[in-house]
Every structure is written in C-alpha cells, then in structure tokens.
Amino acid sequence: MIKHSETRKVRYSSEKMFELVADIENYPNFIPWCDFVRINSSFLSPNTKIKILNADMRVYFKVFKETLTSEVTIDQESKVIKVEYVKGPFKFLRNQWIFESVGAECMIKFYVEFEFKSKLMQRLTGLIFHEAMKRIVKAFEARANELYD
Questions:
Q1: What are the C-alpha distances in Å from 34 to residues 48, 59, 67, 89, 95?
Q2: Which one of 60, 65, 103, 124 counts the least CB within 10 Å of its CB?
Q3: Is the dihedral of CA 78, 3, 122, 62 positive or negative?
C-alpha cells in the first residue's frame, strides 16, 4: 500500500481552495498526467450541500494510460472532499481533502492511499510516487495563483 499525507497552509480562503479542488472537470487543464475527466452522474443530496459525483479520470505516464472511476463526495458545508475508488487499475484508492479556515487563509489537509492490482505497477509507482505528489501539489498551488491573484 502506498500512502501520502500533507498539511499545508495557503494564502487563499478555504472557500476558494475548496472550489478549486471540487472543480474536477478542469483537472486536465493543470494537473500533470491527467488528460481527461468525465462526470458520469451527479446527485445533490436534498436539504444538504453535499454533491456526489461518479467520474472517470484518465491518467497517463509514459506508456501507462489508465482510466479510473471514482465516487466523489463534495461536502460544501464542512469543506471536505472524499474520493472512493469504483473501478480501474487499483485494488483500492482512498483520497480525502479537508479545508479549514485560518483567518483569511486556509489550512489544507490531504491524504491518499492506494494499491495497484498489478505488483509491477505498485513497485514502479512506489519509486516515483512522492515526487509525483509534489508536482501535483505544486500544480494546485500554481492554479490557485493563476485564478486568485
């Protein structure tokens, strides 16, 4: 199993950062290795601000190209986004974002864990995973700078 967690304070509000991460349809515009996102279904829970999406995301790296389907729960009130894996190249994948206001700024807590079905892919990914996470975090920060500065 591969895990990564990170806590980071950014100079933008929790509302803005939440909106940025929740806008998964725009990921191909700025996330490395993501070239396609499709929302298969969207459901807004009655009397709450919770949206549940079923979405496909295609990721690529050199000769590796896979589409994974996930259920994304976007809780606007608590500023939490959870991703649960549905199908694709993994045995499992869990991902969570938590956005907390710190004055006019935001504390972001990010967690991801997964395991590939293929032992070879698991080993290969383990070698580059932390560097890839750094690039993805930088991509979100650059996107925030682009949108909010």
A1: 30, 5, 10, 15, 16
A2: 103
A3: positive
Cα→Cα distances 23→6, 31, 79, Å: 20, 12, 13
Q: Are 36 and 69 in contact (CB under 8 A)?
A: no
What crossing angle do the helices spanning 14-22 and 119-148 adopt, rounded to 10°?
Answer: 130
DSSP class of residue 23? Answer: -
Confidence class for position 148, pLDDT limits 50, 70, 90? very high
Does the pTM surpass 0.85? The reply is yes
Backbone angles phi, psi at 104, to 5 degrees: -85, 0
Assess whether pLDDT exceeds 70 at residue 126: no
Name the residue among 122, 58, 112 with its Cα closest to residue 90. 122
The H-or-E segment that residue 34 falls in is strand 34-44
Q: What does the H/E/C string look like for 72-141? A: EEEECCCCEEEEEEEECCEEEEEEEEEEEEECCEEEEEEEEEEEECCHHHHHHHHHHHHHHHHHHHHHHH
